Amino acid sequence: MGGRSAEREISLKSGTMVLAALKKGGVDAHAFDPRDNGLDALISQRFDRAFVALHGRFGEDGTVQGALEYLGIPYTGSGVMASALAMDKWRTKLLWQAAGLPTPPYELMTAGTDPADLAKRLGLPLMVKPAREGSSIGMTKATSIEKIAPAHELATRYDDVVIAERFIEGMELTAAILGDEPLPLIRLETPREFYDYEAKYFASDTRYICPSGLPADKERSIQRMALEAFRVLGCSGWGRVDAMLDRDGNPHLLEVNTVPGMTDHSLVPMAARAMGISFEGLVTRILEGAHVG
Ligand SMILES: Nc1ncnc2c1ncn2[C@@H]1O[C@H](COP(=O)(O)OP(=O)(O)O)[C@@H](O)[C@H]1O
Ligand SMILES: [Mg+2]
Fold it and tell me: Which end of the chain is more exposed for a tag (fewer CB within 10 A), N or C?
């Protein structure tokens, strides 16, 4: 838990909750923060398995998975390749497009991108995002041509790869995946412009609706699509697929989180609860899925 990404604080919250649940479940669990400890410490502590509760780069992106793999320590969640791919929203979209899965139209932004031309091609509003960041950090909903350049500038502070994506007006959904099964969908509602950092972690007016209230066949088809989107990237163990429905009810996949938040307000625990799985039960199930290779 912890690490050195922009999502460090959230990871510490997730990790603290997971640690408490593991201990409560009788596991001899210990916190390990790779920001303060090197591989030597990981080796000398002789862990039987690792529950990865790191969000963002240097943890959710395949790097720590690679180290654990190399050391032969079974770890939770996706492997090296899938973690790296899912961290990268651009390459995630390339794979989904190749697999015929729907994702909003987008372009990579460069210093030479002309905002007016971009808006002409993709429409407005646009979502401008760093390709490899999480928690909505560095993201802007650009509602006019004038807002595109500042949005690009903000995103470049977090990543040199920046994408501009068509904004999908409609219902936001997220699909938690546990093992090989999608959990009930959660519908998200916020009065803010989008589900930003504030809405995710601080706002009291963010609404989470689970079960989603969608007709059962619609719910099932989106769950199936989310599971396929997860598998196309090679993801395994557990995770969460974010999606939007447009006004016509068509789904558009946004991204996969291979280490989603695990605080008591987080979405995967909420979806698990709707299935009668407690936080402790969830943590235990995830840990049981730990693997190498
Ligand atoms: N193309 C889009 N259309 C509408 N809303 C979007 C779009 N892309 C992102 N969002 C909003 O921004 C939030 C964060 O975007 P997401 O791609 O999931 O990145 P993050 O890794 O930061 O969670 C989403 O939960 C959604 O509310
Ligand atoms: Mg997201």
Answer: C
